[in-house]
């Protein structure tokens, strides 16, 4: 894709290899993506808090969020994200990443307006095209 639009993307996953592969695929899809590879929900909340304190325009355009992480799982991250009001600062699209297809995760994601899709890991180029291509 040759889209020249710069977009900030947070890739939140506790597994190094998943972050590395997903980051490469996102950059392959669009070389102008700025991908922030973040190892935990808690670290992501810290980065988001810093970004909002500097300028709310620094919030990411998209978040790819692993649901199953130690310390703070994806659902806890979403609760904290809303509690801190990040969902009101910028219209960030969130995509849930799950290692297994879980109908409960899909059902639960429908109750979160900022969650746009649930993607079964590993993330593929086709998944990225489906969720990020303009309609």
- β-sheet strand percentage: 15-25%
Question: How much helix, percentage-wise, in residues?
Answer: 40-55%
**Radius of gyration, in angstroms, nearest whole number:** 14 Å
Number of strands: 5
Low-confidence stretches: none
Question: Please, how many helices?
Answer: 6
Question: What would you call the structural class?
Answer: alpha/beta
What sequence of helices (H) and strands (E) makes up the elements? EHEHEHHEHEH
Please state the average pLDDT score: 91
Distance N to C terminus: 15 Å
The strand order across the widest sheet is 2-1-3-4-5
Outline type: globular
Biggest beta sheet attributes: 5 strands, parallel
Organism: Mucilaginibacter conchicola
Protein name: Response regulator
Keywords: Phosphoprotein
Task: List its salient traits.
135 residues, alpha/beta, five-stranded parallel sheet, 6 helices, 5 strands, 43% helix, globular, CheY-like_superfamily, Bact_response_regulator
Structural overview:
By secondary structure, the protein is α/β, with parallel strands linked by helices. It has a domain at 18-25 and 38-68 and 77-113. The chain contains 6 helices and 5 strands; from the N terminus they run E-H-E-H-E-H-H-E-H-E-H. A 5-stranded parallel sheet has the order 2-1-3-4-5, sandwiched between helices. Helix 2 (41-54) runs parallel beside helix 3.
């Amino acid at each position: 894709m040759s889209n020249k639009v710069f977009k900030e993307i947070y890739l939140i996953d506790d597994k190094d290899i998943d972050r590395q592969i997903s980051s490469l695929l996102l950059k392959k899809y669009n070389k102008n993506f700025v991908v922030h590879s973040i190892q935990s929900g808690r670290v992501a909340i810290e980065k988001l808090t810093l970004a909002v304190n500097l300028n709310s325009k620094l919030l990411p355009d998209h978040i790819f969020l692993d649901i199953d992480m130690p310390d703070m799982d994806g659902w806890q991250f979403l609760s904290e994200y809303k509690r801190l009001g990040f969902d009101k600062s910028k219209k960030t699209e969130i995509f849930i990443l799950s290692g297994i297809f879980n109908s409960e995760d899909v059902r639960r994601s429908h109750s979160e307006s900022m969650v746009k899709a649930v993607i079964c890991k590993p993330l593929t180029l086709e998944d990225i095209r489906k969720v990020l291509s303009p309609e």
